[in-house]
Protein backbone atom coordinates (compact mmCIF):
# COMPACT_ATOMS: atom_id res chain seq x y z
CA UNK A 1 0.00 0.00 0.00
CA UNK A 2 1.35 3.40 -1.01
CA UNK A 3 1.82 5.75 1.94
CA UNK A 4 2.19 9.52 1.86
CA UNK A 5 5.33 10.10 3.91
CA UNK A 6 3.84 13.23 5.51
CA UNK A 7 1.14 11.04 7.07
CA UNK A 8 3.95 9.25 8.89
CA UNK A 9 5.13 12.63 10.19
CA UNK A 10 1.59 13.46 11.28
CA UNK A 11 1.35 10.19 13.20
CA UNK A 12 4.76 10.86 14.75
CA UNK A 13 3.73 14.29 16.03
CA UNK A 14 0.42 12.91 17.27
CA UNK A 15 2.23 10.26 19.31
CA UNK A 16 4.99 12.51 20.59
CA UNK A 17 2.66 15.22 21.93
CA UNK A 18 1.20 12.71 24.38
CA UNK A 19 4.57 11.29 25.36
CA UNK A 20 5.93 14.79 25.92
CA UNK A 21 3.45 15.47 28.70
CA UNK A 22 6.07 13.83 30.95
CA UNK A 23 7.92 17.17 30.88
CA UNK A 24 5.10 18.70 32.92
CA UNK A 25 6.04 16.44 35.83
CA UNK A 26 6.96 19.35 38.12
CA UNK A 27 3.24 20.16 38.30
CA UNK A 28 2.80 16.95 40.30
CA UNK A 29 5.55 17.61 42.84
CA UNK A 30 3.69 19.85 45.28
CA UNK A 31 0.26 18.17 44.97
CA UNK A 32 1.82 14.81 45.83
CA UNK A 33 3.64 16.36 48.78
CA UNK A 34 0.41 17.99 50.00
CA UNK A 35 -1.75 14.89 49.45
CA UNK A 36 0.52 12.17 50.84
CA UNK A 37 3.04 14.08 52.94
CA UNK A 38 6.04 12.79 50.99
CA UNK A 39 9.34 14.70 50.80
CA UNK A 40 9.75 16.72 47.61
CA UNK A 41 13.19 15.31 46.81
CA UNK A 42 11.70 11.79 46.97
CA UNK A 43 8.80 12.75 44.72
CA UNK A 44 11.13 14.20 42.08
CA UNK A 45 12.91 10.84 41.84
CA UNK A 46 9.82 9.60 39.99
CA UNK A 47 10.71 11.82 37.03
CA UNK A 48 14.29 10.53 37.02
CA UNK A 49 13.09 6.92 37.08
CA UNK A 50 10.67 7.61 34.23
CA UNK A 51 13.35 9.15 32.01
CA UNK A 52 15.93 6.47 32.81
CA UNK A 53 13.54 3.56 32.25
CA UNK A 54 12.22 5.08 29.02
CA UNK A 55 15.79 5.45 27.77
CA UNK A 56 16.66 1.83 28.61
CA UNK A 57 13.52 0.63 26.88
CA UNK A 58 14.52 2.37 23.64
CA UNK A 59 17.29 -0.21 23.19
CA UNK A 60 14.80 -3.08 23.17
CA UNK A 61 12.19 -1.12 21.23
CA UNK A 62 14.75 0.09 18.71
CA UNK A 63 15.92 -3.41 17.90
CA UNK A 64 12.34 -4.71 17.73
CA UNK A 65 11.06 -1.95 15.46
CA UNK A 66 14.07 -2.40 13.17
CA UNK A 67 12.80 -5.95 12.66
CA UNK A 68 8.99 -5.72 12.64
CA UNK A 69 8.38 -2.03 11.96
CA UNK A 70 7.26 0.87 14.17
CA UNK A 71 3.48 0.45 14.10
CA UNK A 72 3.02 -2.47 16.47
CA UNK A 73 5.86 -1.51 18.77
CA UNK A 74 4.43 1.99 19.22
CA UNK A 75 0.97 0.53 19.77
CA UNK A 76 2.30 -1.72 22.53
CA UNK A 77 4.03 1.28 24.09
CA UNK A 78 0.78 3.28 24.10
CA UNK A 79 -1.02 0.45 25.87
CA UNK A 80 1.77 0.15 28.45
CA UNK A 81 1.79 3.92 29.10
CA UNK A 82 -1.96 3.96 29.63
CA UNK A 83 -1.80 1.04 32.05
CA UNK A 84 0.98 2.73 34.02
CA UNK A 85 -1.05 5.91 34.51
CA UNK A 86 -4.23 4.02 35.41
CA UNK A 87 -2.32 2.08 38.06
CA UNK A 88 -0.74 5.31 39.32
CA UNK A 89 -4.22 6.61 40.11
CA UNK A 90 -4.50 3.85 42.73
CA UNK A 91 -1.06 4.40 44.28
CA UNK A 92 -0.83 5.35 47.94
CA UNK A 93 2.92 4.91 48.50
CA UNK A 94 6.04 6.28 46.85
CA UNK A 95 7.12 2.79 45.88
CA UNK A 96 3.89 2.31 43.96
CA UNK A 97 4.37 5.65 42.17
CA UNK A 98 7.92 4.64 41.26
CA UNK A 99 6.73 1.32 39.84
CA UNK A 100 3.51 2.40 38.13
CA UNK A 101 4.45 5.80 36.75
CA UNK A 102 8.24 5.48 36.64
CA UNK A 103 8.80 1.89 35.51
CA UNK A 104 5.58 0.88 33.72
CA UNK A 105 4.75 4.31 32.33
CA UNK A 106 8.40 4.98 31.51
CA UNK A 107 8.60 1.66 29.66
CA UNK A 108 5.61 2.70 27.58
CA UNK A 109 7.25 6.01 26.70
CA UNK A 110 10.50 4.29 25.72
CA UNK A 111 8.71 1.64 23.66
CA UNK A 112 6.95 4.35 21.68
CA UNK A 113 9.47 7.19 21.49
CA UNK A 114 12.03 5.68 19.15
CA UNK A 115 9.46 4.38 16.62
CA UNK A 116 8.19 7.62 15.02
CA UNK A 117 11.67 9.10 15.12
CA UNK A 118 13.35 6.21 13.33
CA UNK A 119 10.56 5.96 10.75
CA UNK A 120 10.63 9.66 9.89
CA UNK A 121 14.42 9.80 9.47
CA UNK A 122 14.21 6.84 7.06
CA UNK A 123 11.44 8.49 5.02
CA UNK A 124 13.36 11.77 4.61
CA UNK A 125 17.05 11.01 3.88
CA UNK A 126 17.42 14.45 2.30
CA UNK A 127 16.16 16.42 5.32
CA UNK A 128 17.33 14.48 8.35
CA UNK A 129 17.89 17.46 10.62
CA UNK A 130 14.61 19.17 9.86
CA UNK A 131 12.47 16.06 9.87
CA UNK A 132 13.92 14.65 13.08
CA UNK A 133 13.27 18.07 14.61
CA UNK A 134 9.64 17.96 13.50
CA UNK A 135 9.27 14.34 14.61
CA UNK A 136 10.36 15.14 18.16
CA UNK A 137 8.85 18.64 18.30
CA UNK A 138 5.60 17.10 19.45
CA UNK A 139 7.44 15.65 22.44
CA UNK A 140 8.55 19.12 23.45
CA UNK A 141 5.13 20.58 22.72
CA UNK A 142 3.45 18.01 24.95
CA UNK A 143 4.24 19.91 28.12
CA UNK A 144 2.76 23.10 26.63
CA UNK A 145 -0.47 21.42 25.57
CA UNK A 146 -0.93 19.32 28.69
CA UNK A 147 0.11 21.91 31.29
CA UNK A 148 -3.32 23.59 31.50
CA UNK A 149 -5.05 20.21 31.24
CA UNK A 150 -3.04 18.76 34.13
CA UNK A 151 -3.51 21.86 36.27
CA UNK A 152 -7.26 21.81 35.62
CA UNK A 153 -7.54 18.13 36.47
CA UNK A 154 -5.48 18.43 39.66
CA UNK A 155 -7.44 21.45 40.89
CA UNK A 156 -10.82 19.90 40.20
CA UNK A 157 -10.34 16.16 40.68
CA UNK A 158 -7.17 15.70 42.74
CA UNK A 159 -3.80 14.32 41.78
CA UNK A 160 -4.77 10.62 41.84
CA UNK A 161 -7.80 11.05 39.58
CA UNK A 162 -5.63 13.14 37.26
CA UNK A 163 -3.49 10.07 36.59
CA UNK A 164 -6.63 8.10 35.75
CA UNK A 165 -7.88 10.59 33.17
CA UNK A 166 -4.43 11.07 31.68
CA UNK A 167 -4.05 7.31 31.34
CA UNK A 168 -7.17 7.16 29.19
CA UNK A 169 -6.08 10.15 27.08
CA UNK A 170 -2.59 8.77 26.47
CA UNK A 171 -3.87 5.32 25.59
CA UNK A 172 -6.39 6.54 23.02
CA UNK A 173 -4.22 9.09 21.24
CA UNK A 174 -0.91 7.24 21.25
CA UNK A 175 -2.46 4.07 19.88
CA UNK A 176 -4.34 6.09 17.24
CA UNK A 177 -1.20 7.91 16.11
CA UNK A 178 0.79 4.69 16.01
CA UNK A 179 -1.43 3.35 13.24
CA UNK A 180 0.06 5.91 10.81
CA UNK A 181 3.65 4.82 11.42
CA UNK A 182 5.32 2.79 8.68
CA UNK A 183 8.85 2.17 7.48
CA UNK A 184 9.51 3.28 3.88
CA UNK A 185 9.75 0.83 0.96
CA UNK A 186 13.01 -1.09 0.75
CA UNK A 187 14.22 0.88 -2.26
CA UNK A 188 13.94 4.19 -0.38
CA UNK A 189 15.79 2.77 2.63
CA UNK A 190 18.57 1.59 0.32
CA UNK A 191 18.74 5.01 -1.29
CA UNK A 192 18.87 6.74 2.06
CA UNK A 193 21.68 4.45 3.16
CA UNK A 194 23.86 5.00 0.10
CA UNK A 195 26.92 7.21 0.55
CA UNK A 196 26.01 10.32 -1.43
CA UNK A 197 28.16 12.84 0.41
CA UNK A 198 31.72 12.88 1.64
CA UNK A 199 30.68 12.44 5.27
CA UNK A 200 27.81 10.01 4.67
CA UNK A 201 27.90 7.01 6.99
CA UNK A 202 28.28 3.38 6.07
CA UNK A 203 26.03 0.98 7.89
CA UNK A 204 27.30 0.17 11.39
CA UNK A 205 25.92 -2.62 13.50
CA UNK A 206 25.55 -1.83 17.21
CA UNK A 207 28.72 -3.80 17.96
CA UNK A 208 30.67 -1.96 15.27
CA UNK A 209 29.40 1.38 16.51
CA UNK A 210 30.47 0.64 20.08
CA UNK A 211 34.02 0.04 18.83
CA UNK A 212 34.37 3.61 17.56
CA UNK A 213 35.53 6.37 19.90
CA UNK A 214 33.22 9.08 18.41
CA UNK A 215 30.26 7.19 19.87
CA UNK A 216 31.55 7.71 23.42
CA UNK A 217 32.33 11.38 22.86
CA UNK A 218 28.85 11.91 21.45
CA UNK A 219 27.33 9.89 24.28
CA UNK A 220 28.90 12.08 26.96
CA UNK A 221 28.06 15.21 25.01
CA UNK A 222 24.42 14.08 24.92
CA UNK A 223 24.51 13.42 28.66
CA UNK A 224 25.96 16.87 29.45
CA UNK A 225 23.46 18.75 27.30
CA UNK A 226 20.34 16.88 28.37
CA UNK A 227 21.45 16.98 32.02
CA UNK A 228 21.54 20.77 31.83
CA UNK A 229 18.12 20.96 30.23
CA UNK A 230 16.41 18.43 32.48
CA UNK A 231 17.84 20.14 35.54
CA UNK A 232 15.80 23.22 34.66
CA UNK A 233 12.76 21.45 33.20
CA UNK A 234 12.14 19.01 36.05
CA UNK A 235 12.70 21.69 38.72
CA UNK A 236 11.24 24.67 36.87
CA UNK A 237 8.58 25.52 39.45
CA UNK A 238 10.94 24.90 42.36
CA UNK A 239 13.63 27.12 40.81
CA UNK A 240 11.14 29.94 40.41
CA UNK A 241 9.94 29.64 44.01
CA UNK A 242 13.22 28.88 45.83
CA UNK A 243 15.76 30.88 43.80
CA UNK A 244 13.76 33.79 42.43
CA UNK A 245 11.10 33.97 45.17
CA UNK A 246 8.08 33.76 42.86
CA UNK A 247 4.71 32.41 43.88
CA UNK A 248 4.00 28.89 42.62
CA UNK A 249 1.26 30.10 40.25
CA UNK A 250 3.61 32.38 38.31
CA UNK A 251 6.51 29.96 38.52
CA UNK A 252 4.34 27.27 36.90
CA UNK A 253 4.10 29.44 33.78
CA UNK A 254 7.70 28.48 33.10
CA UNK A 255 6.45 25.03 32.11
CA UNK A 256 4.40 26.60 29.33
CA UNK A 257 7.23 28.64 27.87
CA UNK A 258 9.76 25.81 28.27
CA UNK A 259 7.47 23.43 26.38
CA UNK A 260 6.77 25.94 23.62
CA UNK A 261 10.42 26.82 23.07
CA UNK A 262 11.45 23.19 23.50
CA UNK A 263 9.26 22.30 20.52
CA UNK A 264 10.44 25.28 18.49
CA UNK A 265 14.08 24.49 19.23
CA UNK A 266 13.75 21.00 17.83
CA UNK A 267 12.59 22.29 14.47
CA UNK A 268 14.83 25.37 14.27
CA UNK A 269 18.06 23.69 15.34
CA UNK A 270 17.30 20.69 13.12
CA UNK A 271 16.86 22.99 10.13
CA UNK A 272 20.03 24.93 10.94
CA UNK A 273 22.01 21.69 11.19
CA UNK A 274 21.04 20.76 7.62
CA UNK A 275 22.71 24.00 6.52
CA UNK A 276 25.82 24.39 8.70
CA UNK A 277 26.38 20.83 9.90
CA UNK A 278 25.41 18.91 13.03
CA UNK A 279 28.52 19.49 15.12
CA UNK A 280 28.70 23.20 14.31
CA UNK A 281 25.08 23.51 15.37
CA UNK A 282 25.67 21.51 18.54
CA UNK A 283 28.54 23.80 19.52
CA UNK A 284 26.22 26.79 19.16
CA UNK A 285 23.60 25.09 21.33
CA UNK A 286 26.08 24.18 24.04
CA UNK A 287 27.52 27.68 24.04
CA UNK A 288 24.10 29.28 24.45
CA UNK A 289 23.21 26.80 27.20
CA UNK A 290 26.41 27.54 29.14
CA UNK A 291 25.91 31.32 28.95
CA UNK A 292 22.30 31.01 30.13
CA UNK A 293 23.18 28.74 33.04
CA UNK A 294 25.95 31.07 34.20
CA UNK A 295 23.52 33.98 34.12
CA UNK A 296 20.93 31.98 36.07
CA UNK A 297 23.56 31.15 38.67
CA UNK A 298 23.69 34.83 39.63
CA UNK A 299 20.18 34.52 41.10
CA UNK A 300 19.25 38.16 40.46
CA UNK A 301 16.53 37.83 37.84
CA UNK A 302 13.04 39.28 37.88
CA UNK A 303 9.97 37.42 36.61
CA UNK A 304 10.32 38.33 32.89
CA UNK A 305 13.98 37.31 32.90
CA UNK A 306 13.08 34.06 34.67
CA UNK A 307 10.69 33.24 31.82
CA UNK A 308 13.26 34.37 29.24
CA UNK A 309 16.08 32.21 30.59
CA UNK A 310 13.90 29.14 31.06
CA UNK A 311 12.67 29.66 27.49
CA UNK A 312 16.24 29.67 26.22
CA UNK A 313 16.97 26.50 28.18
CA UNK A 314 13.92 24.84 26.65
CA UNK A 315 14.97 26.04 23.18
CA UNK A 316 18.47 24.60 23.58
CA UNK A 317 17.24 21.37 25.15
CA UNK A 318 15.03 20.82 22.12
CA UNK A 319 18.13 21.05 19.96
CA UNK A 320 19.82 18.14 21.71
CA UNK A 321 16.81 15.87 21.20
CA UNK A 322 16.53 16.89 17.54
CA UNK A 323 20.20 16.68 16.57
CA UNK A 324 21.45 13.45 18.10
CA UNK A 325 19.15 11.16 16.05
CA UNK A 326 20.48 12.84 12.90
CA UNK A 327 24.07 12.66 14.14
CA UNK A 328 23.61 8.94 14.79
CA UNK A 329 22.20 8.43 11.30
CA UNK A 330 24.97 10.52 9.71
CA UNK A 331 27.75 8.68 11.51
CA UNK A 332 26.39 5.14 11.70
CA UNK A 333 23.72 4.80 9.00
CA UNK A 334 19.98 4.19 9.02
CA UNK A 335 19.85 0.41 8.69
CA UNK A 336 20.22 -0.11 12.46
CA UNK A 337 19.15 3.36 13.50
CA UNK A 338 16.54 2.15 15.98
CA UNK A 339 18.96 0.16 18.12
CA UNK A 340 21.94 2.47 17.51
CA UNK A 341 20.06 5.55 18.61
CA UNK A 342 18.63 3.55 21.49
CA UNK A 343 22.20 3.08 22.72
CA UNK A 344 23.06 6.74 22.14
CA UNK A 345 19.87 7.72 23.97
CA UNK A 346 21.16 6.18 27.19
CA UNK A 347 23.15 9.37 27.73
CA UNK A 348 19.84 11.18 27.96
CA UNK A 349 18.40 8.60 30.32
CA UNK A 350 21.27 8.75 32.78
CA UNK A 351 21.26 12.55 32.63
CA UNK A 352 17.95 12.64 34.52
CA UNK A 353 19.61 11.03 37.55
CA UNK A 354 22.77 13.11 37.25
CA UNK A 355 20.81 16.37 37.13
CA UNK A 356 18.61 15.40 40.08
CA UNK A 357 21.68 14.30 42.04
CA UNK A 358 23.41 17.64 41.48
CA UNK A 359 20.32 19.60 42.54
CA UNK A 360 19.86 17.50 45.67
CA UNK A 361 23.57 17.73 46.51
CA UNK A 362 24.21 21.39 45.68
CA UNK A 363 22.33 24.69 45.80
CA UNK A 364 20.66 25.53 42.50
CA UNK A 365 23.18 28.27 41.64
CA UNK A 366 26.20 25.97 42.11
CA UNK A 367 24.50 23.19 40.16
CA UNK A 368 23.98 25.65 37.29
CA UNK A 369 27.71 26.45 37.24
CA UNK A 370 28.65 22.75 37.20
CA UNK A 371 26.27 22.14 34.28
CA UNK A 372 27.69 25.15 32.41
CA UNK A 373 31.22 23.75 32.77
CA UNK A 374 29.99 20.42 31.37
CA UNK A 375 28.55 22.22 28.35
CA UNK A 376 31.89 23.95 27.74
CA UNK A 377 33.56 20.52 27.92
CA UNK A 378 31.06 19.26 25.32
CA UNK A 379 32.14 22.04 22.93
CA UNK A 380 35.76 20.91 23.26
CA UNK A 381 34.73 17.31 22.64
CA UNK A 382 32.83 18.31 19.51
CA UNK A 383 35.99 19.93 18.15
CA UNK A 384 38.03 16.72 18.32
CA UNK A 385 35.49 14.24 16.92
CA UNK A 386 36.52 12.55 13.66
CA UNK A 387 33.87 10.92 11.51
CA UNK A 388 34.13 7.09 11.80
CA UNK A 389 33.69 6.62 8.03
CA UNK A 390 36.53 9.04 7.40
CA UNK A 391 38.67 7.03 9.80
CA UNK A 392 37.93 3.84 7.86
CA UNK A 393 38.76 5.52 4.55
CA UNK A 394 42.00 6.87 5.99
CA UNK A 395 43.01 3.36 7.09
CA UNK A 396 42.27 1.93 3.64
CA UNK A 397 44.18 4.76 1.96
CA UNK A 398 47.23 4.17 4.13
CA UNK A 399 47.16 0.46 3.28
CA UNK A 400 46.98 1.29 -0.43
CA UNK A 401 49.94 3.67 -0.11
CA UNK A 402 52.00 1.04 1.70
CA UNK A 403 51.20 -1.52 -0.99
CA UNK A 404 52.18 0.92 -3.72
Key terms for this structure?
404 residues; Growth Hormone, Chain: A
Q: Can you walk through the features of this model?
A:
With 404 residues, this protein is mostly helical. The protein has a single domain, classed as Growth Hormone, Chain: A. 82% of the residues lie in helices and 0% in strands. The protein is built from 19 helices and no strands. Helix 14 runs antiparallel to helix 15. The longest helix is centred in the N-terminal third of the chain and has 30 residues. The chain is globular and about 55 Å long. The C terminus is likely disordered. This is OFA family MFS transporter. Keywords: Membrane, Transmembrane, Transmembrane helix, Transport. It is found in: Cell membrane. It comes from Natronobacillus azotifigens. One of its GO terms (cellular component) is plasma membrane.
Q: What are the secondary-structure elements, in order, as H or E?
A: HHHHHHHHHHHHHHHHHHH
Any guess at the CATH architecture? Up-down Bundle
Outline type: globular
- Ranges where pLDDT stays below 50 over 5 or more residues in a row are 190-201, 390-404
Transmembrane segments: 7-28, 43-60, 72-91, 97-117, 129-150, 162-181, 215-239, 251-269, 281-300, 306-327, 339-358, 364-386
Subcellular location: Cell membrane
Organism: Natronobacillus azotifigens
Membrane topology: Multi-pass membrane protein
Amino acid sequence: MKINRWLVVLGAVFVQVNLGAVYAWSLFNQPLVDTFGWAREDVVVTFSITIAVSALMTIFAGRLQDKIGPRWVATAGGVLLGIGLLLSSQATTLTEIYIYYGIIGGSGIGMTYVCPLSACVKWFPDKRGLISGIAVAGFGLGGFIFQPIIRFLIQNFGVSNTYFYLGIIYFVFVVAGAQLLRNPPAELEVASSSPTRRNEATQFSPTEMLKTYPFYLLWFMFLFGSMSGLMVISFAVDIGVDVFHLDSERAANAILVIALFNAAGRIVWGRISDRIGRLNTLMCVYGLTAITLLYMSLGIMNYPMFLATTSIMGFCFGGYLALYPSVTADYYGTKNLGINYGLMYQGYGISAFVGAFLVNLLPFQIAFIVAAVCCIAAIIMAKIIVHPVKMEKTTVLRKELVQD
